[in-house]
Design brief:
Blueprint (H helix, E strand, L loop, with lengths): L1 H22 L15 H19 L2 H17 L1 H9 L12 H21 L5
Helix pairs in contact: 1-2, 2-3, 3-5, 4-5
Length: 124
């Protein structure tokens, strides 16, 4: 029961996050490290990937591959978290948290999200 609720919460989390890439794309551009080209493409691609994996989690046939995809996606997002810390965890006219908040996001929240997805790599 708890595992089912957790699955639906995770799917909703990534679905909302993915759709937000299209609803409010400007909020994501400053999070994309400046050394990466084509921030608009990266944002759109990230949104599509998040939505695709979120939906995939809901179907037993695609759950395992979607969970592995989320893990790879989260690993790919690590440079954005590091970049956020490098800019003092503050985007002008945007998201600003204490610098320690950026570190908590990277070394606490991110591993929890990885573990959460990993749980569903074991099920079909």
């Amino acid at each position: 029961m708890i595992k089912s609720i957790s699955l639906y919460l995770m799917a909703a989390f990534y679905l909302i996050a993915g759709l937000n890439h299209f609803i409010d794309p400007a909020s994501y551009y400053p999070l994309i490290p400046s050394y990466l080209p084509f921030p608009e493409f990266i944002n759109i691609f990230s949104g599509i990937v998040e939505v695709t994996f979120a939906v995939g989690l809901l179907f037993p046939k695609y759950r395992k591959i979607s969970a592995w995809g989320i893990i790879l996606m989260l690993i790919a997002f690590i440079p954005a978290h590091i970049y956020f810390i490098q800019i003092d965890s503050c985007i002008p006219d945007g998201l600003c948290v204490p610098k320690w908040g950026g570190w908590v996001r990277l070394i606490v929240v991110h591993p929890i999200l990885l573990l959460w997805a990993w749980i569903y790599t074991k099920t079909t």
